[in-house]
Amino acid sequence: MKRLFLITMMLLFALSMFGSSVNVVLINPLGPTVIPITPILSGVVKASFPIKVKLWRNPDEAIALMASKSTNFAVLPITSGAIFYTKGIKISLLGVYEWRVFYMVASKSATFNGWRSLIGKIVYTPNGRGQTVDILMRYLMAKNGVNPDEDTRILYAPPQEIVVLFKAGKIPFAALPEPFVTMAISQGSGRIVLDFQKAWAKSMNLTDRIPIAGLFVKKEYMIDHPEITKEVEKTFSESIRWMNGNVKKSVEFSKKYLKIPISILERSMKRMSFYYVSISKCKKEVKIFLKKMNELYPKGMPKLPGKGFYAN
Prior knowledge:
The protein has 312 residues and is of the alpha/beta class. 42% of the residues lie in helices and 21% in strands.
């Protein structure tokens, strides 16, 4: 016990001595996932050293930032992190923090009575083939007797465009992440007809959550700076805890970074789920998820990451 106390005191002393010289850079997507780190951005939650946050807008920008020697930590979609790893960017997953965000919405005139009700219909989903909700939807369609490439038409567009078309009554069905779900149905133009997290859980016999995004660290940095890595992980986890206890304040903090109306964000947060789980406690779920993504869309994820991808 005495030995543990001495080690702890030595660590705290070391951090206090070089804290000002520690250069920690965390990159994070520009979007609703800014909200869980607003406590860090606003200074409400702090480490014993500064954590500089840089926001990225697309995967190419994330790759460029990860390739930079100055970047140490990254918040990324689990699938993106796995793809980056297999392409030679050696990062390790410390833990998962985003678990619920995807839903299917239907217009007022559309009827949804299960997957077979989509036969002969058009479904819109964001951006392009291979993003997470697209793969989930294709898997669930096929598992329920619907050929996604023959029985339905899956079309792709930017999420903002999908919202505009949906509210205009020009789209019957859309598979979207929040806050675009809330935007789409905010004026009574439609309703949520499917929770992808619950559908995934039922299909895979798992808890009704999906390992959507997590905290990554450069593997070499983690090896060279284990204490700093632990403190960044702890601070990140505390930021999410504070956000969950102060959602309204966290959303207000996000105004500086997001152009989405506060009322939309507050409502959408009720259908999003953020809480930190270290990889040692959710590795099995992540492996199952990535294996299924690889099976369903090998073009997007040609191979699975090795054991070095997992921090524990």
